[in-house]
Design goal:
Strand content of chain A: 15-25%
Number of strands of chain A: 8
CATH topology of chain A: Rossmann fold
Largest sheet of chain A: 7 strands, parallel
Distance between the termini of chain B: 31 Å
Strand order of the largest sheet of chain B: 2-1-6
Radius of gyration of chain B: 17 Å
Helix content of chain A: 25-40%
Strand content of chain B: 25-35%
Helix content of chain B: 25-40%
Order of helices and strands of chain B: HEHEEEEE
Order of helices and strands of chain A: EHEHEHEHEEHHEHEH
Distance between the termini of chain A: 98 Å
Shape of chain A: globular
CATH class of chain B: Alpha Beta
Number of domains of chain A: 1
Largest interface: A-B, 33 and 29 residues
Radius of gyration of chain A: 28 Å
Number of domains of chain B: 1
CATH topology of chain B: hypothetical protein PF0899 fold
Structural class of chain B: alpha+beta
Shape of chain B: elongated
Oligomer: heterodimer
Number of helices of chain B: 2
């Protein structure tokens, strides 16, 4: 130490180097349900419908089971007795929406593009575009698909699976998620029963095996048989 | 491809957590998918890769755990492993088993930096 060169003065303290954290990590605990945001939106939709006094049905099936024909024939019978509105879900085209439009009820089309199902957010957009009149019914036609739509709550009051006699009797066993989720089953195209090999009682047993309390309607949307019971049930649900 | 919707939800959950917890990068994503949920694990992996592109979790490793299915018979109380939903009770053959485990699809935690 000397006073000449200044070596007695302590060096100014170097700022401590920042700890290298690039290798450090921590765990953020979430335990978040992957469907939570859809379920939350569905709850908001349900509230909106409840306040408006509208009953909503979510119709699901494989492609070609006759959902659009069932809708058109249901609308024809309900028209003039209660307000009806429709949300049409399709991957592409407005063809189904045009068939509904021809009946004169308000309809909004949602093209899901590559999406294979409607979700609660899409239905909310649809709700914003439709008149929701008290003691009315909203019919939602989902994308033709027996798998994905089962998982997505839209805020509807009833999930209806449309199953036609030109399909296999074992559909309920092959697509149990859908047949478990739906509280109503419409067996469509019953006018074709004389021409196809389809064991109705076996098919319905399978459906009840998956969901014992399922409500079943056997009808033909094109010929009209069984439509009255279905439409009466719908009317009663709207007034309930 | 409902897995894509689920992956987009996962992305929203991760981005909200990044703001809340103040992290810049996700290293690992820990998911649990039940054997009885309607999720195809491989489709979910693919969808996550798409959904997380351009986010703080773009390079994260996805660790996916499959949770085994397990159910109980509402008629006789018998408990059994379940491979598919609505298996009939192997003990009494009276009723479909009700799933007790294996229906979850959850984002459990993130390893972040």
């Amino acid at each position: 130490m000397c006073t000449t060169c200044g070596c007695h003065t302590p060096l100014p303290a170097m700022p401590a180097p920042l700890p290298d954290t690039s290798w450090e990590s921590r765990l953020v605990h979430l335990e978040a349900d992957l469907l939570a945001s859809n379920d939350a939106q569905a709850a908001r939709n349900r509230q909106l419908l409840q306040r408006a006094g509208v009953r909503a049905l979510n119709l699901m099936s494989s492609p070609g089971a006759g959902k659009t024909t069932l809708l058109v024939e249901t609308i024809r019978r309900l028209q003039g007795t209660m307000p009806v509105a429709v949300i049409e879900g399709d991957q592409q085209t407005r063809l189904d929406a045009e068939r509904i439009e021809a009946t004169g009820v308000p309809v909004t089309q949602i093209n899901t593009g590559k999406g294979c199902h409607l979700d609660a957010r899409m239905v909310h957009q649809g709700l914003m575009q439709l008149p929701l009149l008290p003691e009315g019914v909203l019919l939602i036609e989902n994308v033709g698909n027996l798998v994905c739509p089962a998982a997505f709550d839209l805020g509807e009051h009833h999930k209806v699976v449309v199953f036609s006699v030109t399909e296999g009797e074992d559909k309920p066993l092959k697509y149990p998620d859908m047949f478990r989720a739906a509280d109503v089953l419409v067996l469509n195209k019953c006018d074709l029963l004389p021409h196809v090999r389809f064991d109705v009682s076996r098919a319905l047993d399978y459906a009840r095996q998956i969901r014992p309390d399922v409500q079943i309607f056997q009808l033909s949307a094109t010929e009209g048989s069984g439509m009255d019971a279905w439409v009466d049930w719908l009317r009663a649900r709207v007034r309930a | 491809m409902h897995e894509l919707s689920l992956a987009l939800n996962a992305r929203d959950i991760i981005e909200a957590a990044a703001v809340r917890e103040g992290f810049a990068r996700v290293r690992e994503i820990h998911l649990v998918v039940g054997e009885l949920s309607c999720v195809e694990p491989e489709a979910l992996r693919w969808a996550l890769a798409e959904a997380l592109r351009g986010t703080c979790a773009e390079t994260a490793e996805v660790k996916l755990r499959i949770e085994a299915g397990h159910g109980r018979c509402p008629a006789c109380g018998h408990e059994a492993a379940m491979q598919v939903l609505y298996d009939i009770c192997p003990a009494c053959q009276q009723s479909a088993l009700v799933a007790q485990a294996g229906t979850r699809m959850q984002l459990l935690d993130l390893r972040v930096e």
